[in-house]
Inverse folding.
């Protein structure tokens, strides 16, 4: 097996290689003046399982193209098998036709990756776990929630209230609760499909004078966490924290979260960011060992 850390996940790829006791294959990349991407593998993959580690957080389209080029390069240079490790798989939230005339974006992306030569894929907390069953190649969806929950456990958050900010995150919060042995609940969220504005249905939770942690798969604009945090504070929570697998934190998300008095955001290095305090490397290295 050879590990190829793509430009979007260089550190994570190198950590995985180290845990596996392998020397990573460096990849050089550049962007031409007109915006097109270029990649070159700086080592041989002939006859090997080439594991390409490349997240596809913003700028998603560029990172997807880089991934496609790395897959093509590996296949063209006679890799036996290409495994794409894509911790954050872009376009996964558009997994059905919500409004007439739309594409199913994630299915289009999977077909593109298959066409270019991906033999199998590993991702982490894809937005809807059943999506991977529709991919044209074998795909594994891992969960980083136990790692995030363990982070809070180590810090002594044993009496926190755990909240899923929408129904889609109920499974996530239950997984976290199993590690932290904490009480949990969920909200009903509504997002306007045209404006993107988020609102949550008011519910009662036993959070007065307690610490609460909101768990979600993604924090993008921060709107979902802010709406949930506002409600928790209204209900008397002492402190609100947020945990997510994929801290996209676009635009002014961090500022919005600070202004909503979210004490700290903890994310993983699925998306490198200042809040990416939990590494996926051990989980991914273990999964690759078992291939
Ligand atoms: C959507 O349902 C996801 O699970 C997240 O809740 C959502 O992507 C977060 O987006 P934002 O931070 O923009 O509210």
């Amino acid at each position: 097996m050879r590990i190829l850390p793509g430009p979007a996940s260089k550190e994570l790829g190198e950590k995985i290689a180290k845990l596996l006791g392998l020397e990573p294959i460096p990849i050089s990349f550049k962007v031409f003046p007109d915006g097109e991407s270029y990649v070159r593998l700086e080592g041989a993959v002939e006859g090997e399982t080439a594991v390409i580690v490349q997240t596809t957080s913003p700028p998603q389209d560029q990172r997807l193209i880089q991934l496609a080029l790395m897959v093509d390069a590996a296949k063209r240079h006679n890799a036996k098998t290409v495994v794409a490790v894509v911790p954050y798989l872009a376009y996964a939230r558009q997994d059905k036709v919500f409004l007439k005339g739309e594409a199913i974006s994630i299915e289009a992306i999977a077909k593109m990756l298959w066409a270019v030569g991906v033999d199998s894929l590993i991702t982490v907390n894809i937005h809807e776990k059943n999506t991977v069953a529709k991919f044209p190649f074998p795909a594994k969806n891992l969960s980083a929630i136990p790692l995030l929950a363990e982070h809070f456990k180590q810090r002594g958050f044993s009496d926190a209230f755990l909240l899923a900010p929408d129904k889609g995150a109920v499974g996530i919060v239950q997984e976290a609760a199993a590690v932290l042995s904490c009480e949990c609940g969920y909200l009903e969220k509504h997002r306007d499909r045209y404006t993107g504005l988020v609102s949550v249905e008011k519910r009662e939770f036993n959070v007065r004078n307690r610490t609460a942690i909101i768990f979600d798969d993604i924090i993008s604009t921060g709107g979902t966490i802010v709406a949930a945090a506002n409600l928790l504070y209204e209900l008397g929570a002492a402190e609100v924290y947020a945990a997510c697998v994929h801290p996209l934190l676009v635009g002014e998300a961090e500022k919005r979260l600070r202004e909503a008095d979210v004490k700290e955001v903890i994310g993983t290095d699925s998306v490198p960011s200042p809040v990416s305090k939990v590494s996926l490397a051990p989980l991914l290295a273990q999964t690759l060992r078992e291939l």
Observations:
- The mean pLDDT is 96.
